[in-house]
Amino acid sequence: MRAVFRVAALMASLGAVFPAAARAQGNPDWHRAIPGFKIAGNLYYVGTADLAAYLIATPQGNILINGNFKEDVPAIRKSIEGLGFKYADTKIILISHAHGDHDEGVGLIKSQTAAQLMVMDADVAAVESTAAGRPGAKVDRVLHDRDTVELGGAKLTARLTPGHTPGCTTWTMQVADGGRMLNAVVIGSPNVNA
């Protein structure tokens, strides 16, 4: 039987109610840098103390899930490099959902690394929006439920889990760790907005 573990990308309930600028001031742990750490196999946590971002390291480059707020991008970069990986080796950027605390920084990361940005179809307009607090980032690949994203032997499956945003995406993948094959789940968001 395969071991199963969950990696939850939780966001504060205020995220759906207040604009990005106000939310950014709501929780100091959102912007507090912490060292990146290994979760299992080639899956790493590279977010801040309270905003999740994940790195999947592969021999052909890396996949980053979430870009958090723009002001958090230096902390994400520091976590990636602190783990011994090159920030410039980020080849693919994914998101859990289109709210500023998880995607505002993706445009900046894309411009710094030339990575391809891939987003679930129902969240594309929000990610490409140039409104205040939005990434204004061109999406390179529009994803649909059960599409796969592959790089260097890593294969992630996009699972449409709408409710928090129309295109909220839960990511599933297998991770080899210590002779075991684990099923990893990066939850898009557990709460549903009106």
Please tell me about this protein's structure:
By secondary structure, this protein is α/β, with parallel strands linked by helices. 18% of the residues lie in helices and 32% in strands. The strands form two sheets. The protein has a seven-stranded mixed β-sheet, covered by helices on one side. The chain has a five-stranded mixed β-sheet with strand order 1-12-11-10-9, with no helix packed on it. The longest helix is centred in the middle third of the chain and has 10 residues. The N terminus is likely disordered.
Main features:
194 residues, 5 helices, alpha/beta
Q: Given the C-alpha coordinates, what overall shape results?
A: globular
Gyration radius from CA atoms, angstroms: 15 Å
Q: What's the helical proportion of residues?
A: 10-25%
Number of DSSP helices?
Answer: 5
pLDDT under 50 segments (min length 5)? 1-24
Nearest-integer average pLDDT = 88
Find the structural class using helix and strand composition: alpha/beta
Distance from N terminus to C terminus (CA atoms, Å) equals 38 Å
Short description:
With 194 residues, this protein is α/β, with parallel strands linked by helices. Helices cover 18% and strands 32% of the residues.
